[in-house]
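Bug report

Summary: structure tokens for Inositol monophosphatase family protein differ between web form and batch submission.
Environment: batch mode, default settings.
Steps: 1) Submit the sequence below via batch. 2) Compare with the web form result.

Sequence submitted:
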Amino acid sequence: MSETSSPRAIVESLFPHLQVAAAYADRIQSKIAVLPAKGEGDNFFAAALTDADLAIQNLVEVALLANFPHIRFYGEEYEQSRNTKYFRAIDLGGDGDYLVTLDPIDGTQFYLDGHANYQIILSILNWDDFEAVIAISPAQNTYYYALRGEGTGQGALNQNLAACKPLRVGQPKPTILLGWGMSALQPRLKQQDYEVIDIANAYSREIQVPNLNGILTGDIAGAAIASGKFIDGAALAFLAREAGCIVTTHNGSVPPPLHTCKDYSLPGLIIAASESVHQHLLAAVQSLAE
């Protein structure tokens, strides 16, 4: 790839558009109209869809096609987008043939219910691993940004990427987040004196509970998720890893290269702010297989 199409250059080019998208999402949150759900399923988060999802994806698609017309792009709403057909491809390429992915509103149900911890997540993927991720929290006026091997930075939305300050997860709350399908871990983790948030049963429309991005804010000390989708869970895991957290699969191994995965998803992940938290989560996960 040319220097003008480096991961850093792509994010820098898109950042002003993402700032506009963030302002738009924040200002219409209280007025947002709900589109028909994406489909049936037990995970009502995955079924939620709003005008903002489609509008933000369209904005990013237009910016990409104008500035990087030969880029690969996979957006969460690719099936409903009128722009998908104009991109060269929607899947991973070879080494250096980057794929840009987008979750226009990560946490759409949080967004619909007026909570502040939804995000816009844009990632740049190589064939083996993430090269860059930027996760913007419009309602919290902040964003997190990482380039591969360079750590994670945090900045206010009115600050450019160069103004980001290094993020290090300090002393998080002794709270564990369990993603969908991980409820069985709860009893074992409570024995370790953790507060456990089982998202399938603990979500409230009235009271905001931490999302996976809580690993970056210190609201949670660790999380176990059943899979790491490239557009959201895996992207946030990359930000956490670059910030010094431990990220492994459920058997304690390093996550596999992206090109070996299916359906734009890593296998189940454990994300922990410390070695002790990781060991507790690992033991809990492995106890289910015994």
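Above is the batch result. After comparison, the two runs are identical; trailing whitespace caused the diff. The radius of gyration is 18 Å. Residues 7-28 form the longest helix (22 residues).
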